[in-house]
């Protein structure tokens, strides 16, 4: 199993690189089931996390590819024989949503991840992006105007700026449909 960390060419309001200097931060690896032969572009994803109890960590950055996990969620972990910390299951949700935005390189934003982040910042949504996939991962906290965030996502999609995926949502988010 190959574990990769997307840490090159990242842009964001609060990046995972910022977490490396915090005390007690660890890396936890999530296995990524393949949706097709090209996606996701890895078999696993490493995220930063804070230990909160024995075999429990709180996710400390926005996942790019992991489904069903958001910033602040608590997951049960297990250490393998090589000392790698693996995520096994979510045990407590944060009420945050993870939304992934694939910015079209040939669209009006020309793949500009910073432009996407700047559009969502006034709504209280933070995120980070990676150049390898022209992808922005957004953290949508429960305290923001969820309808406004959804409207912007749908407007960007209809304008041909991006496509988006709901990586982890809450009942409040799903109630908007």
Automatic annotation (TrEMBL):
InterPro entries linked:
DUF4265 (IPR025361)
Top-level lineage group: Bacteria
Q: What is this protein called?
A: DUF4265 domain-containing protein
């Amino acid at each position: 199993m190959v574990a990769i960390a997307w840490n090159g060419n990242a842009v964001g309001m609060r990046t995972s690189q910022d977490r490396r200097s915090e005390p007690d931060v660890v890396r936890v690896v999530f296995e990524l089931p393949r949706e097709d032969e090209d996606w996701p572009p890895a078999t696993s994803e490493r995220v930063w996390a804070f230990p909160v109890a024995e075999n429990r960590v709180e996710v400390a950055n926005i996942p790019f590819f992991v489904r069903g996990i958001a910033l602040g969620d608590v997951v049960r972990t297990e250490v393998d024989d090589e000392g790698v910390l693996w995520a096994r299951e979510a045990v407590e949700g944060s009420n945050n949503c993870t939304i992934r935005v694939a910015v079209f390189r040939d669209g009006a934003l020309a793949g500009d991840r910073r432009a996407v982040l700047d559009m969502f910042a006034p709504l209280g949504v933070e995120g980070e992006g990676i150049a390898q996939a022209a992808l922005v991962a957004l953290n949508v906290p429960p305290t923001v105007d969820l309808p406004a965030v959804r409207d912007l996502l749908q407007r960007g999609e209809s304008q041909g700026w991006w496509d988006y995926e709901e990586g982890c949502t809450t009942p409040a988010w799903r109630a908007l449909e």
